[in-house]
Amino acid sequence: MTMSSSAGGRRKPPTIHDVAREAGVSRGTVSRVLNGGHYVSPAAAEAVNDAIRRTGYVVNRHARSLITGRSDSVGFLLTEPQERFFEDPNFNVLLSGCTQALASHDIPVLLMLAGTKDERRRITRYITAGHVDGVLLVSSHSGDPVAEELREAGVPLVACGKPIGLGSKVSYVAADDRDGARDMVRHLLDVGRRRIGMITGPLDTPGGVERLAGYKEVLTEAGIAVDEALVVPGDYSRASGEAGAERLLAQAPDLDAVFVASDLMAQGVLAVFQRAGRRVPDDIAVGGFDDSPAATAVTPRLTTIRQPWDRISNEMVRVLLAQIGGEDPAAVILPTELVRRDSA
Hints:
Strand 8, helix 12 and strand 9 (285-287) form a beta-alpha-beta unit. The chain is elongated and about 80 Å long. It is of the alpha/beta class. It has 13 helices and twelve strands. The protein is 45% helix and 14% strand. The termini are far apart.
């Protein structure tokens, strides 16, 4: 293996010249391989890649970014208060999946938390200055200008969930929230429940809107009038689940089931029902949504709707890299799955 040495005998990191010498090709050929392999024969590309492995050469990202105009990094932008990132396990699962998917392309991820207007303004300015090549946007609310501002600035962008009001203008990857909600409410009907309440997600987010729509559709199809006293708002936090459960018990003490729009909220619901002496599922069945770690961290374990987090992460990365490469925006909707456990 070739390795440069300093005058004092200390080893220096291998350079692109070392790789070229080891591979028996020109420096230009090595450079073309490192920048995508265009106009390089398969044999030369194989020789260069073998030489990279033998020498231990590592790309100088800063130097390459000066040449290509790219940062070779991607932003993971969460437009929620910082405490939500640490409370809600879904965000961590999604971040981990996206990080792993990008690692296979040797692309690092920058975590960006922007829960206030000032934070969003600063981060938008940072992104549009070219410090990342694209953005994975999570939890965008209607009226949140970030997605539109990044789109107008020409920043490659993929949202988790369909951004409200932007339609086909922005790439997105989403689970089929409405169909998942329909499956859960059908299940609650199938196990004999008729007074089915719901604690919604935020109704300025696509998931909040679609899950509520699915709930209402199935009740209507079953000939059951939607009772607004059985529908209370939540924001996906455990605290809002507790508040929603207390409100439901006060407004509709005869309810026999509740569909909760996130597993984390359902944790709060179970705690309230336990304190109130309501047995789950004997007195009240509870169904969640997400199949996050929160679903199995409670007793009884939650019957819930599984979102395919691995596929969502992989598709978000695939669509973003394609957009960075010049492709048009794309939309991907993935199926959900009913997971039966103990709570319903």
